[in-house]
Amino acid sequence: GAANQKHESRQRPTAQSPAPLSCLMLPPPGASHNLPTRPVVLLSAGQPTINGEFLEAKVTFTGLPEHNTDFGLKAAKLKKAGSTVATAKFEVFFPKNGKNHPGGQTGSENWFHYWREGGVCGIPLNTSTFSDVPANNPYLMAVTYPQSGDPIIRFTTNAAKELTQRQYLGKGGRGSIIVRSNCKGIHCVAVTVEHEQTHMNDYAHIGGREDSDHDIVANADEPTRHGINTDPSDPDTYSVGVSYGDDEIRAQKMEGNNGVLYYPASDWANPGCQSANQYGPLPP
């Protein structure tokens, strides 16, 4: 398969010397995947080996394709002297955190390339990049700079990991609030997009009005925006721990809206939604 996928072929030997075998990788009938359907000769000498009652050979299809739709369900046909002697279906995945995809942003992790290109979880095609921003903070999923008029979302490796709900206690008798989502993998990326878009939308919503504590929330919006009451004179009413805490807690709350769609059946990362070591939401 594409991601160094190994496929083992077995055939009972005859009295003659083993004949050269070839293996053809192709999508099953009706599938939409585009993995190149080229034959691969088994073993360097083109000969299988005898193992008890069987001929055995392993084929490794190296290199990753360009598109997310090139992964998924495939079929292998084992041929001898031009005739098909065996077929088998298998699935092809890409290594999630590898950086060996062709094209796209050099140095970006595979999940970022394929999930963005394939529209798997809402990563914007034209306003996103993979960033080497220090990611030792497990809650740092992405970075944006709306105050600078920069629309780019810079995703860190954490964005494809997981989040859990958090609870904050407000000052001035405001009580506590529970925010964030419990999510993994593509779902985590989708809520990260929602989070960063909230920051950008909130900054645009100021519209020249006064924001005396510089927390990306206009003074007039502090009591009610996104259903949260904050102090116009305190940039971090709920002690989130950043200088723009009053907008950060709003962005964390908006993660639960599920406004950015994600598609588990299109996730071919390993680990991912459909791999054996499943990570993320299961397909419906």
Write up what this structure looks like:
There is one protein chain. This protein has 284 residues and is of the alpha+beta class. 14% of the residues lie in helices and 26% in strands. It is built from three helices and 16 strands. The strands form six sheets. A four-stranded antiparallel β-sheet has the order 3-2-6-7, with no helix packed on it. Strands 1-5-4 form a three-stranded antiparallel β-sheet, with no helix packed on it. The chain has a three-stranded mixed β-sheet with strand order 9-11-10, with helices on one face. The longest helix has 22 residues, at 185-206. The model is unreliable at 4-21 and 25-46 (pLDDT under 50).
What is the secondary structure topology, with strand pairs?
Blueprint: E1 5-11, E2 21-26, E3 39-41, E4 49-51, E5 54-61, E6 72-80, E7 83-92, E8 94-95, H1 110-117, E9 128-130, E10 142-145, E11 150-155, E12 162-163, E13 166-169, E14 176-179, E15 183-184, H2 185-206, H3 245-254, E16 269-270
Parallel strand pairs: 8-16, 9-11
Antiparallel strand pairs: 1-5, 2-3, 2-6, 4-5, 6-7, 10-11, 12-15, 13-14
Helix pairs in contact: 2-3
Task: Give the helix tally.
Answer: 3
The structural class is: alpha+beta
Q: Return residue spans where pLDDT drops below 50 for at least 5 consecutive residues.
A: 4-21, 25-46
Cα gyration radius (Å): 25 Å
Average pLDDT score: 84
The largest pleated sheet is described as:
4 strands, antiparallel
Gap from first CA to last CA: 25 Å
**How much helical structure, as a percent, in the residues?**
10-25%
Shape: elongated
Percent range for β-strand residues? 25-35%
Main-sheet strand order equals 3-2-6-7
Work out the number of β strands: 16
